[in-house]
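Subject: Interface between my chains keeps coming out wrong

I've been trying for a while to get a sensible model of this assembly. When I model each chain on its own everything looks fine, but I need the whole thing in one frame so I can look at the contacts. Pasting all components below, labels as-is. Any help appreciated, I'm running out of ideas.
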Amino acid sequence: MSEIIVAVDGPAGSGKSSVSKEAARRLGYAYLDTGAAYRALAWHCLDEGIDVENADAVAERARSFDYATGMDPDHYFVRVGGEDITPDIREPRVTAVVSAVARVSEVREALNAMFRRMMSEHPRPGVIAEGRDITTVVAPDAPVRVLLTATEEARIARRSAEVSAQTTEATAQQLASRDRQDSRVVDFMTAADGVITIDSTDIDFEQTVQALIDTVRSGLSTEQ
Ligand SMILES: Nc1ncnc2c1ncn2[C@@H]1O[C@H](COP(=O)(O)OP(=O)(O)OP(=O)(O)O)[C@@H](O)[C@H]1O
Ligand SMILES: Nc1ccn([C@@H]2O[C@H](COP(=O)(O)O)[C@@H](O)[C@H]2O)c(=O)n1
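Reply #2:
Try treating it as a single job with all components included. I did that and got this:
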């Protein structure tokens, strides 16, 4: 059973998933990508022809969809109904509708209960869980809570380097629009009380991973 929870929140493209996964690998912890569950539900709704603006229909799917994800940082996967949809959930058509699914309160309640169960049942000594509301709603009592941030300019540049199929303008517009929609539901732009901010604007990936690991170690030593 995992006893150490490291909660990481932040805006789109701040490095939450890549940095958390690598830090978890080096610490021997599990890794929980909570955004993947929202994306998988959005993918599932599209696959089933469900109108993502129909909150009741989306909530009904959230209660019944057969979701699985790998929490071993070296064996990451996302499945719905046994089908591997790991790359599919990153498609622009899914990214474009995921915020609509995530604003349904029944969806958030169902997924948050699942995240808490997954964190507490995992056999590794710790779990790094990342998302938008982990430090404030899902695990507000976690011994280490971090807001991973970077300027919008840096985040757009990083995301554009990954996405070659569209212009930087289109990538910038999507990133800003998703943050705008998501921040109506949860505040992930400012650190809540007790949450440590890591700003990666002027540090590279390796330095950011090290900053998170250092924060985990010092947070745990203060706890004891
Ligand atoms: N400090 C850094 N310096 C340079 N590049 C970085 C840094 N941190 C992360 N990256 C890169 O930025 C990109 C976006 O990171 P990542 O996908 O982890 O962000 P995210 O916060 O999980 O985004 P989203 O919420 O949109 O899924 C990746 O290509 C990642 O390798
Ligand atoms: N704790 C969370 C995590 C994610 N979301 C929503 O899911 C979307 C996708 O998240 P990524 O981290 O994979 O980009 C995100 O835009 C949010 O709409 C959430 O609400 N809470």
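Reply #3:
Confirming on my end. The first helix runs from residue 16 to 27.
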